[in-house]
Amino acid sequence: MSAVLPVSVVVVTKNEAQQIVACLETLKDFDEILVVDSQSTDTTQEIARECGARVESFVWDGKYPKKRQWILDNVSLKHDWVFFVDADEIVTPDLVDEIHRLFEKGSPVCAGYFVTGRYLIDGRVLRFGMPNRKIALLNKTKMEFPVVNDIDIPGMGEIEGHYQPVLKNSSDKIGLLETYLIHDAFDDERAWTFRHEKYARWEAGMTLKNAWPTDPVPWREAVKKALRGSKFRPELIFFLGFVLKMGFLDGKMGKKLAVSKYRYYKLIRYFTK
């Protein structure tokens, strides 16, 4: 498909020189590509400019809004439709084609769309197990990232955590894109472990303070509440991913993903005590 997509892609970065090229190369169909960088000390900004992206700098002041909402509030974007892509994500041609179809007849009917991330482990994209799903494509006039009570929680950072943007008008709808992007989260296992220990401390603090915003999809909210309240959450997550979602069909890599999620939720359980 040749038409340029009327979407501003936003890639948030900090020291992503090793991955930024692979990410940006998949985004050529979008009308605007913006990299918002948090004072990288490597060559992330230079590489992004060489790839044709516009680069903006972000310095967090320790308060809300955090990074993604700050971008929506303060950075001049060409389009109301914004696609948030992480530097360790690769947008597949099939996903680009689906977004083209979404815009064929004008602005999409929903306020935002969930995008599924399939994990890439040791060079292989996993087909089964529990994927990562988030509202990444949204209309900035209809959705926003909520303010939550997490500023004093250990592990908290400059970017919004593991929760979804919310609707400004409750009558608007949220959709789901059928195709996926690739999430290369296991390129550096030590970095993954360090990063997820911070996330686990933050998630535990969010639960202890009852600070979680309501998920915009009611059934997802119900499942999340039930899992957060269960002392068997790590075991349930492992069972859901490896057995019910058939992660075992991905062999050793499927088991590696399921075990990593089990360990992550076990950390949350430990920090919640």
How do the strands and helices of this protein lay out in sequence?
Layout: E1 5-13, H1 20-24, E2 30-37, H2 44-50, E3 54-57, H3 67-74, E4 81-86, E5 89-91, H4 93-102, E6 112-121, E7 124-125, E8 132-139, E9 143-144, E10 166-167, E11 174-183, H5 189-208, H6 218-228, H7 233-244, H8 251-272
Give a summary of the structure in a few sentences.
The chain is an alpha/beta fold and 273 residues long. It is 35% helix and 23% strand. Strands 1, 2, 3, 4, 5, 6, 7, 8 and 11 form a nine-stranded mixed β-sheet that branches.
From the helix content, strand content and strand pairing, which structural class follows? alpha/beta
Count of runs of 4 or more consecutive helical residues: 8
Strand fraction equals 15-25%
Order of helices and strands: EHEHEHEEHEEEEEEHHHH
What's the mean pLDDT score? 94
Helix content: 25-40%
Extract low-pLDDT stretches.
Answer: none
Counted up, domains total 1
Q: What Rg, in angstroms, do the CA atoms define? A: 18 Å
What attributes characterize this protein structure?
single chain; two-stranded antiparallel ribbon; alpha/beta; 35% helix; nine-stranded mixed β-sheet; Spore Coat Polysaccharide Biosynthesis Protein SpsA, Chain A; 273 residues; 8 helices
Report on this model:
With 273 residues, the chain is of the alpha/beta class. It is 35% helix and 23% strand. The protein has helices at 20-24, 44-50, 67-74, 93-102, 189-208, 218-228, 233-244, 251-272; strands at 5-13, 30-37, 54-57, 81-86, 89-91, 112-121, 124-125, 132-139, 143-144, 166-167, 174-183. Helix 5 packs parallel to helix 8 (251-272) and helix 7 runs antiparallel to helix 8. The longest helix is centred in the last third of the chain and has 22 residues, at 251-272. The termini are far apart. The model has no long low-confidence stretch (mean pLDDT 94).
